Amino acid sequence: MMNIAAMSEQYGLDVARRDCLFLAIERSIRVRVETDFFSWAQGSLQAAIPHDVLLCACFDPQGRLLDSHVCSPIPMLDGSASALVRTEDGLLHLLLSLWDGNGRSPLLIDATAPTGAPNPALAASLQALAFSKLLAHGSWAPCGSVDTFFVFAGIRCALDAKVSDVVEIVVPHLRAAFVRLQPRKMKPRTPNRARALTNREREILLQLQHGRSNAEIGGALAISPLTVKNHVQKILRKLGVRNRTQAVALDMSQRWHRPD
């Protein structure tokens, strides 16, 4: 168990912030399902780092997005949520690139400050989503690849060294809570459903691992994009997952644990 008093002294935390941080860490252990995660994020974690929106993401060893989760009491339009994680120009990827390029230290951005956002693309994204202050930090695997990344948007406290210290302390526990959700979200409906995939479906699943589109897969296998789409839907149903990235992650995990 961590020495909270020593931690408070090391980071110069006052009693109120120390207590909020301790509760956030202690209650993170109880997170098991998505409803637990939402209650925790909007409860003790919210008290430790006041924010409007929490964006969570996890990645595979090749840096591909496996899953993302937007946690907020504020209803978001579908377009706003997708803009957060859109490939290449989404807020998530802009921040991840900036964080990775700056030594992977906690990223503090205040678009209202004289210096504003670090680049025009990020400034435009923040303006479109109506976020002025945000805080971002992540974690990485032993091989060095980023495995999770978290963005606190609409920060309602001072963006100073103390909140930077708090997020650095919190993220390992936030990561543990978020990662615990992933096996449950990607679990097949029955243990042996993956074996029911046809040879053609396995060929398509292999193509999906390379990030290819329906048209590209169709060209490689000499079938139409519509046929590919139909096969993909069958694959998702058989594996009991919601999207292509989850299907790929689940298949890779099962192959990793299967004996040769």
Short key terms for the protein model shown above:
Beta-Lactamase; Arc Repressor Mutant, subunit A; 2 domains; five-stranded antiparallel sheet; disordered C terminus
Q: Using the coordinates shown, work out and report the CATH topology of the largest domain.
A: Beta-Lactamase
Spans of 5+ residues with little confidence (pLDDT < 50)?
Answer: 187-194, 255-260
The helix/strand series, from N terminus to C terminus, equals HHHHEEHHEHEEHHHHH
Cα distance, first to last residue?
40 Å
Shape: globular
Total strands? 5
Domain module tally:
2
Biggest sheet: strands side by side, in what order? 2-1-5-4-3
Number of helices: 12
In the CATH scheme, the class of the largest domain would be Alpha Beta
Mean pLDDT: 80
Radius of gyration: 20 Å
Full CATH superfamily name of the largest domain: Transcription factor LuxR-like, autoinducer-binding domain
- What structural class do you assign from the helix and strand content? alpha+beta
Specify the helix fraction band: 40-55%
